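Why show two proteins at once? Because comparison is the fastest way to build intuition. When a single record is shown, students tend to memorize it. When two are placed side by side, the eye starts asking what differs. So, the first record is below.
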Amino acid sequence: MNSRKLTIAEHLFTQTYPALDDPKILISVLQNLHGAIEDAITEKLEHARENKHIPAYSTTFNGKVTAFKIHLARDLKINPVDFMMIGELQELLQQQKQAPTEFRRKTDFIIADNDFHLHQISPEKTKTYIERTKSFVSRL
């Protein structure tokens, strides 16, 4: 499966981010990775649902992930670490939406919540998310 959102995330990370040197682009990379994961999971769930292998499920992101875990993950031999990564991505993007303060620190993008707990998005961490997302999507 070749996800357009995964291709966009890779392009943003390998071409746009180095050219502009703006860590805020890392958020766009994470958003596209999240979208690629959701698209892949949705495709598998819809196929299983059409073939009446699984019951109806919630169409929220968390509902899809839960249905995928319950009904399909074991048969597809999905590693629990993949679900941890999906949770981390979801949490980072949620924190970024709600954060009152965001700023750049060298090559990293920092999100500060209301209690000034800092959440760091680094190029290294982003690269790991890209690699893990590619692996996850390719196994589906």
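Second record. Ask yourself what differs from the first in the token line.
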Amino acid sequence: MGADAPERCAQAFTVAATATASGADVSLWLTGEASWFALPGRAEAFELPHSAALADLRDAILAGGALTLCTQCAARRDITTDDVLPGVRIAGAQTFVEEVLGADVQALVY
């Protein structure tokens, strides 16, 4: 869900940015084609009529929440930590599960 599905992409960023602005603890994970939005200039190039600018939504999420790029998705696209925007982390399933459960689940992963 990236530029190949612009409405769904914009909806995800809009809901996450709105939740962040409302004080919610937000963590948005970029997967698949949305992985490219972790890179400088990619959100700025995204256009969808009648939608807030994706770069503004992304920046709001980064300012008050977490923006994570899936490890496997990054690897498939040759994206490294040197490539991503400041504040974007690259992490995998264990981190996702820890966030969802709100606890350290290391013992469950190994």
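One difference worth noting in the second protein: The longest strand covers residues 66-70.
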